[in-house]
């Protein structure tokens, strides 16, 4: 059994199980609060203090679905804690063998104790490690059996017409069935009228004109209406309403199934449409007449779905290059009948970033590349070798002075960290992380000083010849795919700035600015 290090740093990890949620529903009280009280009493008996508590408020089968567990393991791997207090080892995770291996290795390699009310586990001790591994294995088996029973119970409830969602669809409220187990839906009259309007507008139009999902969403927003969560209506939300069979009194189950794949050594989960979807009559009252429902579905089916072709030719010379700085999404190409050509636009609805002609972005980008080439061509035309050597020495001296200034600033920051810790501004974990970060930066400066002096080289100088070749070839290239290949050879990404819409008298490049980030070499010495 592991021994408590009285002067060490300890944390606690709290997580509800599905069983805890069921007991809370029966009035057994808040599980996390009860467990926290028990762990603090345990810490007091052991003579240690809990410096931080990780509270997991979401339920998930894997570590990837539990953010607090991931954060805990990151801190354990960083060596922040001497021990972790937890009610039982299965609270750390009941995932598959991969997750269990991650948990085992994190505690073993960091020499971190696992402290429970029943036992203190020292992963570096062979017997403790084996017992810990056995506990995780049997908790996983128990969890698998519980999950199977729950799935059978959910299937039986769905076949009995119960509503299986945890949140009601718009127009209903979720209520318990009278005299029977399970949940059902009850119509909310004022919202049911809105649902009927949505179906009617989509099927028969609005003010004599066709009404799509975006038009309907904008109409509801102008009326001051909001979703159940208080958010504005979106076209995707309207589509979900129009496609949901709950509005004709049906309940569905297993419409999507979870599929796991191993990608780069990690388990990746995806939700795919199931071939075994269950659709049965529900216990709730319908809102939409069946004929109107069928009419709406026929309209959707008539639209078809545009197939995605991963092998389609590139039609945008800036594909994957231009980023919106507001929302972080890639700018996309939008075809235009204008003689000025196609647009680049941000696909995020209501993003303040406005569109611009691709030709304007192209001209601005080529101007930046020309600037790179001109800047370093001028530097290469130094009068003589002596001047170049003097410039190199001067650059080296400037670099040393800059490193000295940076080192002094980092040392000042490092000394302040201790003051912040004493004042309670930083937690222990924040202090350790920040101190390690500053020490690594100082070590990097020391390593740079230890290397022989070399002239300071702007990394863009190394890609200037390639940029010159790109400029020469670009004007001779007509294919968007070839243009994209040329640009991506010297550009990592482009930050696009434009929030004012173009007016009639504006030029294509007005109110547009870009920041071009070169694709720098990966040589760490540069």
Helices and strands, with pairings:
Blueprint: E1 10-15, H1 18-25, H2 31-46, E2 50-56, H3 67-77, E3 83-85, H4 97-110, E4 113-115, E5 120-121, H5 126-159, E6 172-176, E7 183-187, H6 189-204, H7 213-222, H8 235-243, E8 250-253, E9 256-263, E10 266-273, E11 278-281, H9 290-303, E12 322-323, E13 332-334, E14 343-345, E15 356-357, H10 358-380, H11 385-423, H12 428-450, H13 459-474, H14 480-490, E16 491-497, E17 513-518
Parallel strand pairs: 1-2, 1-3, 3-4, 12-16
Antiparallel strand pairs: 4-5, 6-7, 8-11, 9-10, 13-14, 14-15, 16-17
Distance between the termini: 50 Å
Structural class: alpha/beta
Mean pLDDT: 80
How is the main sheet built?
Answer: 5 strands, mixed
CATH C-level class of the largest domain is Alpha Beta
**Which value, in Å, is the CA radius of gyration?**
31 Å
Main β-sheet, spatial strand arrangement: 2-1-3-4-5
Number of domains: 4
- Ranges with pLDDT <50 over ≥5 residues? 385-389, 522-526
- The tally of helices reads 14
- The number of E-state strands comes to 17
CATH level 3 topology of the largest domain = Rossmann fold
Summarize the amount of helix as a percent range.
40-55%
- Share in β-strands: 5-15%
Label the CATH architecture of the largest domain.
3-Layer(aba) Sandwich
Shape: flat
Could you give me the name of the CATH homologous superfamily of the largest domain? Answer: Resolvase, N-terminal catalytic domain
Description:
By secondary structure, the protein is α/β, with parallel strands linked by helices. The chain folds into four domains: 10-156, Resolvase, N-terminal catalytic domain (Rossmann fold), CATH 3.40.50; 172-303, Hect, E3 ligase catalytic domain fold; 322-374 and 461-518, no CATH class; 388-455. 46% of the residues lie in helices and 15% in strands. The chain contains 14 helices and 17 strands. The chain has helices spanning 18-25, 31-46, 67-77, 97-110, 126-159, 189-204, 213-222, 235-243, 290-303, 358-380, 385-423, 428-450, 459-474, 480-490, and strands at 10-15, 50-56, 83-85, 113-115, 120-121, 172-176, 183-187, 250-253, 256-263, 266-273, 278-281, 322-323, 332-334, 343-345, 356-357, 491-497, 513-518. The strands form six sheets. Strands 2-1-3-4-5 form a five-stranded mixed beta sheet, sandwiched between helices. A three-stranded mixed beta sheet has the order 12-16-17. Strands 13-14-15 form a three-stranded antiparallel beta sheet. The protein is flat. The protein starts with 9 loop residues before the first strand and ends in an 8-residue tail after the last strand. The model is unreliable at 385-389 and 522-526 (pLDDT under 50).
